[in-house]
Design goal:
Length: 187
């Protein structure tokens, strides 16, 4: 039987360097508020150009959380890291990081961005009042792919949040934001 203490230690020893590499490779550790604002605005405009449904949903969102560059890497143990901006209307409402760790059959590295449209007061309040929001816990988040996007309209928007993953580069066996923890950071 695998000793859980050894498994936890192995997870920490592999994930910390992966996350450190991801943060330094993306320049996230050196990002200023101005850098994040600029990168988030550009990423959002690129998403709107390539996905008109995202633009339609944004018109009904109470707030938008943009992570323009997430770096994910792993070999059995893996992790991801990126920083983003929460906006309400045209006002910056805070800065956040997105962190995940995983283990299993995986190998590779990739970068991507994602946007979460917060549709309800409950979702906006939740992100403000928690010390870390785990996607999959709390408000319902629907990850929108091309098939789901075709069925969304302003009258069918019923969930607390909708997430769009975009600008994927690199090679990784799978991509998900489940199990991702989003926490407030100071910039």
């Amino acid at each position: 039987m695998i000793n859980l203490r050894h498994l936890a230690l192995a997870l920490v020893l592999v994930t910390v360097p992966v996350l450190s590499f991801g943060a330094s490779a993306s320049g996230a550790s050196e990002s200023t508020a101005e850098d994040l604002n600029r990168d988030a605005a550009q990423a959002l405009q690129n998403l709107y150009k390539t996905n008109p449904v995202a633009l339609d949903i944004s018109k009904h969102a109470r707030a938008v959380l943009v992570f323009p560059n997430i770096v994910k890497a792993g070999f059995v143990f893996g992790g991801s890291y990126g920083e983003g901006v929460l906006t309400t209307g045209s006002t910056v409402d805070g800065y956040y990081n997105s962190v995940s760790a995983s283990w299993g059959l995986q190998a590779g590295a990739q970068s991507y961005g994602y946007v979460v449209f917060l549709m309800s007061r409950k979702a906006v309040k939740y992100i403000h009042n928690t010390h870390g929001w785990e996607i999959g816990v709390g408000p319902t988040v629907v990850v929108v792919n091309e098939g789901a996007a075709k069925n969304l309209s302003s009258s069918t928007l019923k969930d607390d949040a909708y997430a769009f993953i975009f600008d994927q580069q690199g090679l990784m066996a799978s991509l998900s934001i489940e199990g991702t923890k989003i926490s407030h950071i100071n910039r």
